[in-house]
Request: fold
Amino acid sequence: MTISLEPASPSHRLYLSQLAIYLRHSRQILAAWDHYSDQHSDPEAFQPYDEDAYGLRQQQRDADTLSAFGRVYYHADELVHVAQQQLAQLSTSARTRRYAWQVRELHDATDGLYAVHDDWLAVRRALPGTAKPGTKAFEEPLAESYAEAWSYLDQWAIHGQAIFAVNALSQKQLGGAAPVLVTAPPAPKTAATSTVRR
Reply:
């Protein structure tokens, strides 16, 4: 893997802003999913009332999350690499150790996403000629691929803010002001906390 991304460069700032957009969108998608899950699941048995409809809605969540990550996907490994390089230059503390763990989680999630994508390409090449988008033969394996990707996307939603924190610490240590970025807002509050989430 050849990484040429320089910290605080225009490209780095662009990729960070794209990550901020993903974090915001992924939280909105998850909040909508939690609301749906709360409304369409038995609160005691934690089972969906209609498994088919629930499954279709879950597939939509997976597809929406992957689509939202599209801006980040092609540069995720570069963002992780830069954060790792920045961490290596920071003094060790409880805070930087926590960030280092989160960045490792993002590294693993990125590897997982790239592997899922490669698997999907192999599956798609093996599909019969009649398996076109919109057909069951195409859409079912695609939905399975989205489902496999979702847990890795969720790791980015959970730990992605660490990329900003590491960058801010690094810029502060270098004596420069951290670039002004649109950071992800706090997760929206919902009326009830779902127990059938994620």
User: Anything to note?
Assistant: The CA atoms of residues 8 and 105 lie 23 Å apart. The radius of gyration is 19 Å. Residues 177-198 have pLDDT under 50 and may be disordered. The helical segments are 10-39, 51-73, 76-88, 94-126, 136-159, 161-173.
